[in-house]
Amino acid sequence: MSLAPKVLAGDLRAAARLMRLCDDDFASVVEVMKAIYPHTGKSAIVGVTGNPGSGKSSLVDRMVQRYRAHSKKVGVVAIDPTSPFSGGAIMGDRVRMNRHFGDEGVFIRSLATRGHLGGLSKSTAEVTRVMEAWGADPVIVETVGVGQDEVDIVKMAQTSIVVMVPGLGDEIQAIKAGLMEIADIFVVNKADLAGADRAVADIQYMLEMVPPAEPDAWKPRILRTVAFRDEGVDEVVRAVDEHRDWLGRTGRMEAKQRERSEVQFFDLALSRLADRLRATLAKDEFAGWSERLSQRKQDPYTLLEQIADRLFKTP
Ligand SMILES: Nc1nc2c(ncn2[C@@H]2O[C@H](COP(=O)(O)OP(=O)(O)OP(=O)(O)O)[C@@H](O)[C@H]2O)c(=O)[nH]1
Ligand SMILES: [Mg+2]
Fold first, then answer.
1. Can you give the pLDDT at residue 234?
2. Could you give the residue ranges of the DSSP H alpha helices within the chain?
3. Who has the most CB within 10 Å: 17, 86, 288, 295?
4. Which residues, other chains included, contact 233 with Cβ-Cβ below 8 Å and sequence gap of 6+?
5. In a mutational test of the pocket of ligand 1, which residue from 150, 162, 228, 229 has the highest number of ligand atoms less than 8 Å from its CB?
6. What is the pTM of this model?
């Protein structure tokens, strides 16, 4: 059980191994996860979300360069939503961060959406924890703002960046009202393309429609970047720092951390319950349960009652 001290000492290979085991054989690393937990919770967690192809990875790549220049170790979690229809990733080349390959101070990891209840957010929380224990500060979580799952994951961040691009038309971008609400920093990337001014004005207009609830509320920043030319990135990194300062100064960080812990515990519990449920339903005595339901030979309420008292019993 020497994995925990190794991870805490900053051993990249040990951390990678722990993550693999989290996926493959969680029971074998539960004690390690318990041991590292008290050493987590101090790093900045930054969420980056936006439409497919808006330039999230390009921006994250440039941000990582900034943090590395200050000798900070950085973790990057890229959430890759897989479509149940195509069976594959809906995006092509996701992680535009090859330049960091071989840099022992950067830990990049992609996670695929699994469609298991609570599963994705549970693994995101675990990967983030391992990265923190390894010494990553910040941990940057990139997700495509497509589904509620992905938005929920970004909600777990302390600072959320929403990446937009010019010329998409506000109707398309504004649909993602959920994204609007979570943004602490709006980045209009691809500001080299026509329509960047309009996009900034649209966001500004939208923000003005919702007056701040409290006098000391955070005023979301609206920044322009040309990520692939490395322009405007210093401002993004500075805004992240400012937001973190604001969280600490106004006492909001504590509340946020409490909320995160609560959400993460629910995700853990739900995912564990879902595993148990599946295992229980797979037992012989429940064979054919879905046919019985569909042929109306049994009702789901009774099935649930039959299963409920089995769920918490040790198998
Ligand atoms: N014109 C322009 N293109 C950019 C800019 N930043 C990134 N790109 C290009 O946009 C494309 C998508 O960039 P990514 O960084 O992969 O975007 P992403 O949002 O991470 O994409 P997914 O993860 O697939 O959703 C690439 O071809 C980039 O070179 C920019 O500032 N201006
Ligand atoms: Mg990407």
1. 98
2. 3-8, 12-24, 30-36, 56-69, 119-134, 148-155, 170-174, 177-182, 196-209, 233-249, 252-281, 289-294, 300-311
3. 17
4. 59, 62, 63, 65, 66, 225, 227
5. 228
6. 0.88
**Cβ contact 41:257 at 8 Å:** yes
Spacing, Cα 93 to ligand 1 middle (Å): 10
pLDDT for residue 124: 87
DSSP 108-119: EEEEE----TTH
How far is the C-alpha of 247 from the C-alpha of 225, rounded, in Å? Answer: 24
Low-confidence ranges of the chain (pLDDT < 70): 1, 81-99, 101, 113-119, 146-150, 168-179, 312-315
Of residues 104, 53, 101, 112, the one with CA closest to residue 77? 112
